Structures are given as C-alpha cells and as structure tokens.
Amino acid sequence: MRYIKSILLLLLFSSCAIVRPGEVGVKQTFGKLKREIISPGLTGINPLITKLIKIPTRTVNQEVRLNLPSKEGLNVRAEISILYHCKQEKTIDIINDVGLNFEQVLILSTFRSASADVCAKFFAKDMHSGKRSFIEKEIKEQMGELLENRGFVIEAVLLKSITLPTGLYAAIESKLRAEQEAQQMVFVLQREEKEAERKRIEAKGIRDAQKIIKEGITDDNIEWRSLEVLKELASSPNAKLIITDGKTPVLINSDK
C-alpha cells in the first residue's frame, strides 16, 4: 500500500510543470508540438508521452569575446554584449525552424557575420574612440535585418572592452598629443594676430591724433593762444617780468 502511494505521489509531481516568469512553454507529445503557448505558471503534462519545452522571452545578455578585423587589416580583441529576446508569438516557429540551440545556431553566427562586416569599415582606433556608438548601432541594425521575421528582437549591441594591437595605443596617444599641440599653436597664433591687430588700431589712433594736433598748430592759432596767455599774465596780481614781442610772452620771473 505504501509503495502504491509513493508511485501515485511520484506520478502526481511528475505530471506538474512550472513555467517561470520571463519564459513560455510548449508541450511536445510524441515529438509533435502543440500549438498552445503556455504562459508562466503551473501546468499539467503526461510525463510518459509529453515533454514541456521552455523558451525565454525575457532579455538575454550574451557576452562574446572575439577578434574583429579593422579597415587597415589589424585584429582587435573585443568583448561584446548582445541583448536580445524571443517573441512569444514566434515560440513554436523558433523551435521548429531553429531548435533549442537557437543562440549558437542563429544569434551568435549572425552576430559574428554582422560585426565582421561592420568593423571592417572602420579603423582600429575608431573602435576605441567616439565612433564606438556608430559601430554598435550598425551591428545591431544589420543583425536586425538578418533576423527579420525569425522571432528574435536585438535590443542592443554593446562594445564593453576593446584591446588594440601592441604599439597602436602609443601611436594613438602620439597622434592625440600632436593634435593637441597643433590646436595649442593655432590658439597662440590667433592670440598673436589679435594682439597685432590691437597694436595696429592703437598706432592708427595715435597717428590720427597727432595728425589732428599737427593740423591745428598754425601761426594764427599760436598767436591767438599767446595773446590769451599774455592776458592771463597781465591780470595776475603777482609781480613778474615779461619779455614779449607782442606775440609770444616769455615769463622771466614771478613772485608769489
């Protein structure tokens, strides 16, 4: 009796299956898939003839390490993350067309092809600079085109780390240093040009002022200013000796 109860309990537990959140299930009976897609939760199966196949629909992060070709023919060591998920409504098609090993068969093979095609258009230094986002976007778009209607959505392709060939780092740093020095020289030249322009404007102002003063110094002006000075001296209460020819006064002595 106890043996029969154990068998019944075993059959009861084995006839129950759980589909976890972030995945869906499909029942396979005698090798044939049923069209019903099972949502997360508890479901019953016949363990003798039926198997529950699970496919993840949550975002999957697949990390890949590989050598990428560059435009100049160098091999760049890269660590890349592929974020993707399976469409729930395409679950049965994925199992029928690709199988459960779809990540190796389709996702990674498509990624290797797309990444090689895209990276071959860029120089090695571009993968390590501001063009990284463009490379990620192009790989993602090309993978999306290759996997169109296959039941997969490529969410993102992320270049996590790039290892350039030996010696290329030094070449890049040398080039950046030369570019910075060139920019500094341009700044110095612009500053010197502005200073020279300032001096030219200042010299022109002094020249114009001297020209105006020179044009204003005439015999009539000198005589008129001399008469004004003579008048001021004559009206002063201080004792003084003035020698003049009637045009230009010369003060010899004065007493306060």
Question: What does this 3D model show about the protein?
Answer:
The structure is a single chain. With 256 residues, this protein is α+β, with helices and mostly antiparallel strands. It has three domains: 2-56, no CATH class; 60-170, Tetrahydropterin Synthase, Chain A; 219-254, no CATH class. Helices cover 46% and strands 29% of the residues. The protein has helices spanning 2-14, 91-97, 102-119, 132-146, 168-216, 219-234; strands at 16-19, 23-29, 32-38, 41-44, 50-56, 60-69, 75-86, 152-163, 240-244, 249-254. The strands form four sheets. The chain has a three-stranded antiparallel β-sheet with strand order 3-2-5, covered by helices on one side. The protein has a three-stranded antiparallel β-sheet with strand order 6-7-8, covered by helices on one side. Helix 3 (102-119) crosses helix 4 (132-146). It is rod-shaped. The model has no long low-confidence stretch (mean pLDDT 78).
CATH class designation of the largest domain: Alpha Beta
Terminal Cα span: 145 Å
Instruction: Note the beta-strand portion.
Output: 25-35%
Count every helix, treating DSSP H or I runs of 4 or more residues as helices.
6
Helix-strand makeup class: alpha+beta
Question: Could you spell the SSE succession in H and E letters?
Answer: HEEEEEEEHHHEHHEE
Walk across the major sheet and give the strand order. Answer: 3-2-5
Number of strands: 10
What is the second-level CATH architecture of the largest domain? 2-Layer Sandwich
Helix content: 40-55%
CA-based gyration radius: 46 Å
Kindly give the count of domains. 3
Biggest pleated sheet: 3 strands, antiparallel
**Superfamily (CATH H level) name of the largest domain:** Band 7 domain
Low-pLDDT parts are: none
